[in-house]
Design goal:
The protein is mainly alpha-helical. The chain has 16 helices and four strands. Helix 4 runs antiparallel to helix 6 and helix 4 crosses helix 11.
Length: 379
């Protein structure tokens, strides 16, 4: 059961998965929503053209209906008329073209955002395979798209057919009045039809956008195993990281043991903890911890210290406090100055007594705030 659940794509896509998808040019897109925005932008520009659009349209009609006897026998008539008609048509539809271009650029911002992908531009010859192409057509996704297209055609065709039936009288009336009135009425009916068409596309596009966003997220879902594999790739293999950590710790212990012979004293507890201190009043502001360890490592420190004739001082509270408060290579905190000073003074007196053949001084029993021992208070 656990293995089967790991293979089900139930997890939301990670940021890495989403980023890789965008790099491939795969983003949530709705062609219906983009088409609706383009159509509505063109309709808005057409209906706002007002008197200017009417003037250009009237001029085009006049070119086709108004000729003098001399112009009919002129060889330049067709060229001149075509030039003027193209100029007027360009002036009439330029705002519509500009509005649709702006709509084309704005539409992607509503779903998916702007996204430029070099990978998407690279040729993929497998797309030319006719067998795979037929497979996509008859696949479930292709059938869904075909069904959507048929439903859109049926819906839009039905609504526009009802509109034409409703406007039948107005369409017939466009040829009964003056040319100016007919042109104005034609442009109004054309704008209304386009507005209805754009509104229906917008409704379909809004529904399709929700579906495309859902489908995009569904296709990018990941299995639990994929997420674990991605975490391994991002953070590194845990086993390898553990091995690296072990190597680093071994190197740190080796350097610590190399520094240990320079210690002035090793404070012990008596077997669980061992902390080696070194103090050079010319180079250090306070005694420094150059080696420390617990249990097996503490015993190793004791053996190395004994082989180099370094004094071992049993002071359990101080040993635990030094281990808890001071990192390797750092100077001891000010709260332990007095206790460590008592130990160092004892070591110097011990060396002097040994050199002169005198009795050793009494071992110190420095007092330490129990809070400084941290989690090792009862160790």
């Amino acid at each position: 059961m656990a293995e089967g659940s790991d293979q089900e794509k139930t997890e939301q896509p990670t940021e890495k998965r989403l980023r890789e998808s965008r790099e491939k040019g795969e983003v949530a897109r709705s062609r219906d929503l983009s088409g609706a925005i383009v159509v509505l932008a063109g309709v808005a520009a057409l209906m706002n053209s007002g008197e200017s659009g009417l003037r250009h349209a009237r001029r085009i009609f006049q070119l086709g209906l108004g000729y003098t006897r001399d112009s009919l026998f002129s060889d330049a008539l067709s060229g001149r008329s075509l030039h003027v008609a193209m100029h007027e048509a360009l002036a009439l539809f330029a705002p519509v073209a500009i509005a649709t271009m702006v709509g084309t650029l704005v539409a992607p911002l509503l779903l998916g955002g702007l996204n430029f992908s070099v990978q998407a531009l690279q040729p993929k010859f497998e797309r030319l395979d006719p067998i795979k192409g037929l497979g996509k057509i008859f696949a479930l996704r292709g059938l869904v798209e075909l069904g959507k297209a048929l439903l859109k055609l049926l819906f839009i065709g039905t609504v526009l057919g009802l509109l034409l039936q409703h406007w039948q009288g107005q369409l017939q009336a466009t040829g009964r009045g003056s040319v100016t009135a007919g042109i104005a009425q034609s442009i109004g009916l054309l704008g209304s039809a386009a507005l209805w068409f754009g509104s229906m596309l917008a409704l379909i596009g809004a529904i399709d956008a929700l579906y495309q966003k859902y489908d995009y997220g569904k296709n990018l879902r990941m299995t639990k195993q994929e997420i674990r594999d991605e975490m391994k790739e991002s953070d590194g293999n845990p086993e390898m990281k553990g091995r690296i950590r072990q190597v680093q710790q071994a190197q740190s212990r080796r350097r610590m043991m190399e520094e240990l012979p320079k210690a002035d004293v090793v404070v012990v507890n008596p077997t669980h903890f061992a902390v080696a201190l070194r103090y050079d009043d010319g180079r250090m502001g306070a005694p420094r911890v150059i080696a420390k360890g617990v249990d097996v490592l503490a015993q190793q420190i004791r053996r190395v210290a004994a082989s180099h004739h370094i004094a071992l001082v049993e002071a359990p509270p101080l040993a635990r406090a030094l281990y808890a408060t001071t990192e390797l290579g750092r100077e001891i905190p000010a709260l332990l100055f007095v206790a460590v000073a008592q130990v160092l003074a004892y070591v110097y007196q011990l060396k002097q007594a040994t050199a002169q053949g005198e009795s050793p001084p009494a071992a110190p029993n420095p007092e330490v705030d129990p809070d400084l021992m941290g989690p090792y208070r009862d160790a």
